[in-house]
Amino acid sequence: MKTFKLVDVWINIILVSCCAIICLANIEFLFYAYFIIGGWQIISMMVHGITGWFMKNRGARKVYIYTVAIILSFVLLGQVFTPFLLILFVLLVGSPLLAIIYTHICYMELQELKEREQLSLK
Asked: N or C: lower Cβ tally within 10 Å for the chain?
C-alpha cells in the first residue's frame, strides 16, 4: 500500500505540474490535460475504493469521491436538461482546483502512513 501511495502522490504532482506548465505554453492542451489528470485520478480512486484503503467514514477521500459523483451526475443531467449545462462552465474552472485537492488528500494519506510506520517502530 505504501508503495502505491508514494507512486500515486508523485504521479499526481508530476501530472498537475507538467500539465499546468504545458497549458501556459499552449492553451490548446487544456482539453487533454483534463483527461490526463482526471483519468489518473479516477484510476486512483477506483484502486482505493476496491482495496478499501483510506475509506474512513467522513474521511477526506470519501467526501471527495461523493463530491465527484455528484458533479458527474450533474454533467450527465446536463446532457439531458439544458439548464444543467452551466455545471460544465463551473467545471472548467473548478477541475484544476479539484485536482490539487485530490493531490493534497493523497499527500496527507502518505504522511499518515509514514506516521503509522514510525509509531510501530517505537
From this structure: C
CA distance 99 to 30: 13
Q: Is the dihedral of CA 58, 67, 108, 2 positive or negative?
A: positive
Q: What is the 3-state secondary structure of the chain?
A: CHHHHHHHHHHHHHHHHHHHHHHHHCHHHHHHHHHHHHHHHHHHHHHHHHHCCCCCCCCHHHHHHHHHHHHHHHHHHHHHCHHHHHHHHHHHHHHHHHHHHHHHHHHHHHHHHHHHHHHHHC
pTM above 0.90, yes or no: no
Residue located via cell numbers 493534497: 104
How many CB atoms within 10 Å of residue 15? 19
Q: What is the pLDDT of residues 48-87, one digit of tens each?
A: 889 888 888 888 989 999 998 998 888 888 778 777 667 7
Position 81, amino acid: F
